[in-house]
Amino acid sequence: LGHSKRILEENCQCRRVLVVDDNEFNLLALRTKLEARKYSVIKAFNGCAALEELDRIYSDPSLLCKSRVCRRISIVIMDVDMPEMNGLDATRAIKAKQQQGLIPLFPIVGCSAFDTADDICAAREAGMADYISKPVKEAR
């Protein structure tokens, strides 16, 4: 989480991370690491659920922080291989909403056990800002 940690610290005061993964163990591992760094974690089990969660978050005015540049979400950590809607398709859908001005810009970081050059390239082409391999290790 080294480079991604720096991305987290550049955003508004909300310190909310949307973690999208279909594996409960992976969600728990990421949640534990992020909460230890004082981030609030919102979880979704696939890309469709992530889009629903973002719709909920951006329709709830109580989630605004005091920052005038509030993004409500600092970052999304997105598994790539999930049922229903995979992380690449979900990222494309989120990026489309951002380009239309429906939600603010925030980075999406791909997270997968598959980390070949082709996998990383596909993640970047979908709009992911960074890519981390599972299992996720602590930044030093």
Task: Provide a brief overview of the structure.
By secondary structure, this protein is an alpha/beta fold. The protein has five helices and five strands, in the order αβαβαβαβαβ.
Question: Helices and strands in order, then pairings?
Answer:
Layout: H1 2-9, E1 16-20, H2 24-36, E2 40-44, H3 47-59, E3 75-79, H4 87-99, E4 108-112, H5 117-126, E5 130-133
Parallel strand pairs: 1-2, 1-3, 3-4, 4-5
Helix pairs in contact: 3-4
Proportion of helical residues: 40-55%
- Note the run of SSEs as H and E: HEHEHEHEHE
- Which structural category do the helix and sheet elements fall into? alpha/beta
Low-confidence stretches: 5-11
Strand arrangement across the biggest beta sheet: 2-1-3-4-5
Query: Radius of gyration in whole Å, from Cα?
Result: 14 Å
Overall pLDDT confidence: 84
Shape annotation: globular
Distance between the termini: 9 Å
Structure summary, number of beta strands: 5
Biggest sheet: strands, sense, closure? 5 strands, parallel
Question: What would the keywords be for this entry?
Answer:
5 strands; 140 residues; single chain; alpha/beta; five-stranded parallel beta sheet
What does this structure look like?
The chain is an alpha/beta fold and 140 residues long. Helices cover 41% and strands 17% of the residues. It is built from five helices and five strands. Strands 2-1-3-4-5 form a five-stranded parallel sheet, with helices on both faces. Strand 4, helix 5 (117-126) and strand 5 form a beta-alpha-beta unit. The longest helix is centred in the N-terminal third of the chain and has 13 residues, at 24-36. The protein is globular.
